[in-house]
Write a structure and sequence with these properties.
Length: about 260
Amino acid sequence: MPFAPPRSLSPSKVSAFTECPLAFRLSVIDRLPEPPSGAAVKGTLVHAALEGLIWNHRPGQRTRRAADDELEWAWRAMGSDPEFQGLALSETEAEAFKADAKTLVHNYFDLEDPDGVDAVGVELGLEVQIGPMRLRGIIDRLDRNAEGDLVVVDYKTGRAPSARYEHSRLGGVHIYALLCRELLGRAPTEVRLLYLRDPVAISAAPSAQTVRGQAGRTTAVWSAIERACSREDFRPRRSPLCRFCNFQAMCPEFGGQPPPGPQV
Ligand code: SF4
């Protein structure tokens, strides 16, 4: 019996399927439980602090002290989060976790002056139907620049990619440009990734051609997912990313066997 395709596609699902169709199936379609990721939880914490810094404070008040207050608030809220609790951090580990998040938040100030930010929205959920595909994404921040043009900003808490992988990492942000074009009637003139760890900013200027190209690539990924579902054919794709995969024990590349597909 064929697998049911996911209801919608997001930038993270596009990269998950592209990186390894089998891992995509086990995570997105089968929804097998995965252990909480400390990196993802820390990312949520840092995002919440930066969102609060920009959205809750006027230009002129977006100081490191204000960012620390926002981080403190987000940290308290995170205490009851099941993902955070699942990390089961000791007191010392929790302190180190929070201190590292604070370093990332402070690194943000090396990348831009928050008082110069004119944000149209933060944590902006966009969803649109393009042909047979429902595309959705959450934009960390949508800005208006001095010329009145839109700029998409995405915070990253991992390391910046090497030049070799830079283009593929920008792919996800180009999907945000596509979402803006479809929903707001115009694409941003710039997409910017702020890598807080390094810290370094990578930016690109989407053109009508790159947005059209992204629409084509995303539709092709959606078709490939539908095809894999109907043929029940999700192949493993071995790569250096395998060492971070939660499904090695079920992967034929590592001597395992995936669970059977949907039963009649
Ligand atoms: S171990 Fe590698 S090849 Fe196997 S499912 Fe995970 S990512 Fe894919």
